[in-house]
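Study this chain:
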Amino acid sequence: MRIVRYQYHGHTGYGLYQDESITPITGDLFGAYTVSAVRIPLAEATLLAPIIPRQLIAIGLNYHDHVGELDFAKKLPTEPISFVAASSAVIGPGEAICLNDSVSRIDEEAELVVVIGKRCYQVSEEEALEYVFGYTCGNDVSNRAVQSQDGQWFRGKSYPPYKPLGPWIETEFDPYNAPIESLLNGKTQQKANTGMMMRGARELVAFASSRFRAAKYVNMLLLVAVSLGAMYFSFTIALIAIMGGALAIGGIGTLKNTVKAEE
């Protein structure tokens, strides 16, 4: 099932996406809700970030190939490296990534995003995925100069709008075997598979729940791509973030954003 957050004639709501149309839902997205009989053509609506998290928890350096690419990341971490990013950095499909710096290195990072659907604290790896509502695509845009200068990652990863999410939440998805790729102007920048993660979704959800009292709506960016790619002004970035094996529509979908200089 694919769940979208959309805007239509001034109204913002959630809906089920199927066959190029949106069926609005009312009620608690994470509990009981009612499905409308109305169908809204996707072409007449605007897709928004599928969720605005109360907390955005991220895991860094979760691929062997990513370790060593950055000056401050030369060794394999002995446990998951976690950090937070600002929810105010979240944008949706089609919105522009406005780069805050015309000189520094700014990278895109294709990410698998896990949406936690119920309160999650000190859960085991065996039960961890029971707390997952679904998955979406994310781009962890990062200013590397600021990251290195600060000695921590919050500011360099939290500029608005450095956290594109979308295009929807997919509730039926295997997080352990999905190709992930990012493209810049049609050219592949990053290519990997979620099966290449040093630590998988179960372990990371359990790890985060032991350190954060995760409320509903928490998004966790669980991985970084195998290699990095720099973004430049006036280019279009098409983030094809989880293509589900042989499925023509992909395991999750395609997140697209333009890139431009901050005005």
Remarks:
- The chain has a mean pLDDT of 81.
- Residues 50 and 149 are 32 Å apart (CA to CA).
- The longest helix spans residues 201-209.
